[in-house]
Design a protein that fits this description.
Number of helices: 14
Structural class: alpha/beta
CATH class of the largest domain: Alpha Beta
Distance between the termini: 50 Å
Strand order of the largest sheet: 7-6-5-8-9
Helix content: 25-40%
Radius of gyration: 35 Å
Number of domains: 3
Strand content: 5-15%
Order of helices and strands: HEEHEHHEHHEEEHEHHEHHHHH
């Protein structure tokens, strides 16, 4: 019966077989100057007279495309507690091993290491998509609308002997996908009735819309469940049926895709900053429902007066392209040429309105659309995930690992 072979002798025998596979007639110009020692191929180099350990002075040469080399790299990668390529390659070198093409082998193993991906993995990205057609249509304002809910704020509802009773108020922000105009409606609760009433008020003021977009994490699904005010399965259906009766379609973004609602998320952030500044100026004013509605109207006016393109220094173009040009016809648009008065003013009033609208859409096409051409991020095309791929899911609500 043969005795059990020790690990060191088995390891040395494996290295000997690998050295035989590597053995070729040695060229004098080889940078590593390999030689045979202890039945193994070792690095010769120029450190013969260095006061180093022989394993460091003459490390053993291993091929990169061998299973044992991969196992050794995995062993030392785990030994340095899944650190980067420099740590792992240094541990391999300290063990007296010189792997040909070691940088590439170590990088490929770290790239496939599940533990490293858990610790430092990057999220999958894809090239930024083309703009949807509703962002590029020349159509009446608020024909294509994106909406979201934000808040709440505490308002005084009634006076009591002990002080004042307070309630919460929210707001629905409607933004035009084309002109980037904003309309804000204050709501008293997050249930279906308040949402439908806000949409009806919006339609009564701005006219019916062709399409409405929102994400699934707002008042229609997530907020109603979170606050326990309504059944989550009934809210979307009731509102969608109401919109279909008004010849309007509702598109929901996929879950956890907040970047697809960047048009209205950006406007909500801007609204919050303006509103915080207004409330800071009036610290001692008690917020009531009427005051909150007035503040929202003023915030809408400020946002709709913002420039859509960089302000020109050309004195021949003093007017700023802003959503208020098409929403109110009172800001930033010059009067039509010619003197119109008396009967002509009544007869040609439609020409004035048409000239104002044409002036906005002409500048909108020539100045604003060009700013949407470039991609600010997500420039490269990557491979899409396929069926059978093993992935790690990241949840924003949960910490890493």
């Amino acid at each position: 019966m043969r005795p059990v072979t020790s690990f060191s002798s088995l390891f040395k025998g494996t290295l000997f077989l690998m050295s035989m596979l590597l053995y070729k007639p040695i060229k004098p110009s080889t940078p590593l100057a390999p030689f045979m020692g202890d039945d193994l191929i070792k690095v010769g180099g120029r450190l013969k007279h260095a006061s180093l350990d022989p394993t460091l002075k003459n490390p053993k040469i291993l091929p990169s495309k061998h299973h044992v080399s991969k196992l050794l790299v995995l062993h030392y990668h785990a030994k340095v507690v899944h650190q980067g390529r420099q740590f792992t390659e240094s541990a391999v070198r300290q063990a007296g091993l010189w792997i040909l093409g070691g940088k590439r082998l170590v990088s490929s193993i770290i790239h496939r290491c599940v533990t490293c991906k858990k610790l430092r993995g990057k999220l999958e990205t894809q090239k930024m998509a083309e703009l949807p057609p509703e962002r590029l249509e020349t159509c009446p304002p608020f024909s294509y609308v994106g909406l979201d809910v934000f808040g709440p704020w505490s308002v005084v509802t009634r006076r009591t002997r002990g002080g004042a009773a307070q309630s919460k108020r929210w707001a629905i922000l409607f933004t035009c996908m084309t002109t980037r105009g904003v309309h804000i409606e204050v709501i008293e609760s997050m249930d279906t009735c308040s949402c439908i009433n806000a949409i009806r008020r919006f339609f009564a003021i701005r006219g019916p819309a062709k399409q409405m977009r929102s994400d699934r994490g707002t008042n229609f699904i997530a907020a109603s469940v979170e606050l326990g005010m309504a059944q989550p399965n009934k809210n979307p259906l009731d509102i969608v049926n109401h919109l279909h009766a008004n010849v309007c379609t509702w598109e929901f973004n996929p879950p956890h895709a907040s970047h697809m609602g960047g048009v209205w998320e950006r406007m909500i952030g801007l609204t919050r900053r303006i509103l915080d500044s207004m409330l800071l100026q009036n610290k001692h004013t008690r917020l009531t429902h009427e005051v909150l509605c007035t503040l929202m109207a003023e915030v809408s006016s400020i946002i709709n007066a913002r420039p859509l393109v960089p302000i020109s220094t050309d004195p021949s173009s003093p007017f700023i392209l802003c959503p208020a040009m098409i929403l109110t016809h009172k800001q930033g648009v010059p009067s039509p040429p010619g003197d119109l008065c008396g009967k002509d003013l009544l007869k040609n009033q439609w020409k004035q309105v048409q000239a104002l609208a044409n002036g906005f859409w002409s500048r909108w096409r020539n100045e604003y659309l060009n700013t949407l051409q470039s991609r600010r991020k997500w420039h490269g095309t990557h491979r899409n995930l396929q069926s059978g791929d093993i992935v790690l899911l990241k949840q924003n609500q949960a910490p890493r690992n």
